[in-house]
Design brief:
Blueprint lengths: L6 H21 L17 H13 L3 H8 L11 H13 L3 H14 L4 H15 L1
Helix pairs in contact: 2-3, 2-4, 3-4, 4-5, 5-6
Length: about 130
């Protein structure tokens, strides 16, 4: 048995490889290049908290709550100040039960924040009356 391939065998092997590549090209659909999805703008929760605080000071707690509410379950979920300010806005809107829940969550996130305990107690006392 000859260990070398004849020219005929080499051509035959090359034809098989070419045929396999053509079959692969036919059965593998071309994947169109998709544009990169646009990244959503990053939310600066600290800046939103500052804006919301200013809104409350300007007498507009509804605006303050509108700024923070969409982010409380996402980027603001673990942000104590966001929950504290949202709770303050809710309290000013006489949404005491919601305010208490928000302020309690804020205090669970940051238990050393003394003014938060005072505000929470004030709303709880007011809602008991």
């Amino acid at each position: 048995e000859d260990a070398e391939l004849s020219v005929e065998e080499l051509k035959s092997a090359a034809d098989v490889v070419v045929a396999q590549q053509e079959i692969i090209r036919e059965i593998e659909p071309e994947v169109p290049e998709l544009p990169e999805p646009e990244a959503e703008p990053a939310v600066d929760i600290d800046a939103l908290v500052e804006q919301a605080t200013a809104s409350i000071k300007d007498g507009n707690p509804k605006e303050a709550l509108a700024l923070l509410k969409p982010h409380l379950k996402t980027i603001g979920a673990q942000h104590a100040a966001a929950w504290r300010i949202a709770g303050g806005a809710m309290a000013r809107l006489d949404l005491d039960n919601h305010a208490i829940a928000a302020m309690t969550h804020a205090q669970n996130l940051e238990p050393s924040h003394a003014p938060g305990w005072f505000n929470l107690g004030s709303v709880q006392q007011r809602s008991d009356l």
